[in-house]
Amino acid sequence: MPSISRRTLLRVGGATVVANGFARQMLAAPVVSADLVVYGATSGGLVAAIQARRMGRTAVVLEPSAHLGGLTTGGLGQTDSGVAASIKGIAGEFYRRIHGVYAGTPVTPTSPARFTFEPHVARAVFDAMLAEADVPVYFGLRLASVAKSGNRLVEVVGTNGQAFRGGMFVDASYEGDLMDRAGVAWTVGRESNATYGETINGVQLRSGHQFNFPVSPYVVAGNPSSGLLPGISGTPVAPGGSGDGLIQAYNYRMCLTQASSRIPFPRPAAYDPVAYELLLRYIQAGWNGPFFTTHGVGGGKTDSNNNGAVSTDFIGGNYAYPTASYSARESIAAAHLAYQQGLMWFLANDPRVPAPIRAATASWGLAADEFTATGGWPPQLYVREARRLLSSYVMTERECRGQSSAPDPVGLASYTMDSHNCQRVVVGGVVRNEGDVQVGVPGPYGISYRSIVPVEAQCANLLVPVCLSASHIAYGSIRMEPVFMILGQSAATAAVLALAASSSVQQVPYATLRARLLADGQLLQWPPPAGPGEVIVDSHDPSVTRAGTWVSSTSIGGYWGTDYEHDGNTAKGVNRLRFRPNLPTAGTYAVYLRWTADPNRASNVPIDIVHNGGVTTRVVDQRGSGGQWVSLGSYACAAGTTASVLIRTENTNGYVIADAARWVLSA
Fold it and tell me: What is the distance of C-alpha 397 from the center of its chain?
């Protein structure tokens, strides 16, 4: 880890500043000027400031809370990465640095990436990157006002009276407060399917995180005249695909552990068992869990998320949040915290809950060495969506599905179109959840530059990489932390280019922006173009030959192209698949194989590498090293199609994966 000893904490006019090499007088000045002013110390905001500094410009970050790093440092340690190989640039560097921390190895451009991590590790990596870039971060800096000259932002003023002036601005907040203050058009809620010609937007009464047993929604079970239990809507369900103002549920991503040092789940001061009557009835109807996820992130800790019909998502508790005042948001966040704390205390302690469930829940607790300032609870509410920009290009389901392609991509997204439930309703006298959608995408897709910039007449020097212009369902795919980092870097790059040309961000030539993004390691198309002397053969390539039966899948991320194939863990010795490249020239080639890893994979997959000297067999373990190119060695190969890699399945002890192979000519 790089040293972070140069960073200091200052109190300036009511705001806490994290500083590096900046003079105290400058930090304490009533007016601070920088080339780029970033609002929101989310992962995307931090990367934007780092990129501006790497391009030789000054940058400051303003954060209304006391937390740095957003969800990346706030408990979301099981990264929603989608196709991990599509995450490049500074985002890719961040995850390589995470790997370096755990492996104790130097970080290089070819280091492996790690997408699971403890919150404090993510914070340390961000601290180091900010220190290296000399980026000051002002905490507790809430917006009081903004000033514009024509269609350009000039300054933002905090509630402490300190002003920040810049040539360019980035709104990297989860809420979109700066774009709102700047007079930029935005929306909240779900569009109808008809709005953008979509199929899974709007009201969606589906099976995800749904009640598997019938449960009465009424205060007195079976008696409608007794009224509804808390959190259940009495409004009839609108037709499928109808638009409304509802948003998907929020929660806190808990960092849990079963270590003896764990902090037991506390009983909140305002605990009311009525809030969990619905869950009690669900348990009594036959549901035994799981009630939350326990994805391991390292150090014996988890990233624990919502799971099932009644879990950590506080469905319906966030409707006012996107446009609420700072103080009102604090109250909403406190209500979410009280609900979630009460939920965990209920599951671990209420005598009406079956003893096995209580014991299983109580075996977990909060990690004592994480979020120490807030008693082990993450300080960052998971704001899954709030305001969304309305620009000249709206990302929709069509882009996610690969049915349309943005001609001006500034980054890739690849995660499932994912909306958590938006409301609880009554259907046929029983309670149902509504709004959960989980539909995969065929592969990484480009995000339009125009979707992160407002209409020029509204603001000419603002970029919005987090609350970007997208429909509700498309945002459900794009809204992932690595993508926010990717878009943060691209936003800052465009801002610096606009400064250099004294132009608006809307007038930055896309060809110029694209060239700089590629030079800085961003990935803008999928699959990526092969490099000089490099040949990649995907499982869909016409040159691939098969024996037996191979099944297409996208269930485990990290694959190349649009999917991968597996042998179904059957017909061992019959199922075979051969990758055959068309090599441009004779020479020595480094040969690599790629697969997606999972515990159900085979650990003893035989691989035959055909080369000038004959056939060399290697055995690979597909339970690990997923989503990366794994070396099979270097071999002399002739030009043309005589070389190959054959995946065999004889005597293998799990699923065998065929994704892609790669040949790289040695210099």
Answer: 18
Token look-up 């009495």 returns 234
The DSSP code sequence of 328-385 is HHHHHHHHHHHHHHHHHHHHHH-TTS-HHHHHHHHT-EE-TTSSGGGTTS-SS-B---
> Per DSSP, which regions of 7-142 are E strands?
8-12, 15-19, 31-39, 59-63, 137-139
Q: Full-prediction pTM beyond 0.90?
A: no
Q: Is 2.40.50.140 the CATH number for 534-665?
A: no
Residue 13, pLDDT > 70, answer no
Interatomic CA distance for residues 51 and 90, integer angstroms: 8
Q: Which residues pair with 553 in a beta bridge?
A: 564
pLDDT for residue 92 is more than 60? yes
Calculate the CA dihedral of residues 218, 220, 226, 229 and round it to 10 degrees: -40
No. of H helices and E strands in the chain?
Answer: 13, 35
The segment(s) of the chain belonging to CATH 2.60.120.260 are: 534-665
Task: Work out whether the CA dihedral 55, 94, 464, 4 comes out positive or negative.
Answer: negative
Coil, strand, or helix at residue 614?
strand
Residue 620 φ/ψ, nearest 5 degrees = -115, 150
Residue 578's SS3 state is: strand
Residue 540: how many other CB atoms lie within 10 Å: 14
Pick from 332, 375, 371, 380: nearest CA to 42:
380
Distance CA 94, CA 588 (A): 33
Q: Which helix (H) or strand (E) holds 358?
A: helix 355-362
As a CATH number, domain 8-187+440-519 is: 3.50.50.60
Q: What is the mean pLDDT of the chain?
A: 95
Q: Say what angle helices 89-103 and 119-133 make with each other, to 10 degrees.
A: 120
Residue keyed to tokens 């030009």: 639
For the record, the structure tokens of 6 come out as: 């140069």
**Cα–Cα separations (whole angstroms), residue 497 to 36, 52, 651:** 12, 10, 57
Task: State the Cα–Cα distance between residues 433 and 507, nearest whole angstrom.
Answer: 45
For 308, residues 6+ apart whose C-beta sits below 8 A from its C-beta are 209, 287, 289, 290, 291
Report how far residue 167's alpha carbon sits from residue 157's, in angstroms, rounded to the nearest whole number.
Answer: 15
Which residues touch 165 (CB under 8 Å, ≥6 apart)? 31, 32, 33, 34, 37, 154, 155
Query: Which residue spans of the chain are classified as CATH 3.50.50.60?
Result: 8-187+440-519
Q: What is the pLDDT of residues 330-370, one digit of tens each?
A: 999 999 999 999 999 999 999 999 999 999 999 999 999 99
What are the DSSP calls for 489-520, one per residue? HHHHHHHHHHHHHT--GGGS-HHHHHHHHHHT
Is there a contact between 58 and 34 (Cβ–Cβ < 8 Å)?
Answer: yes
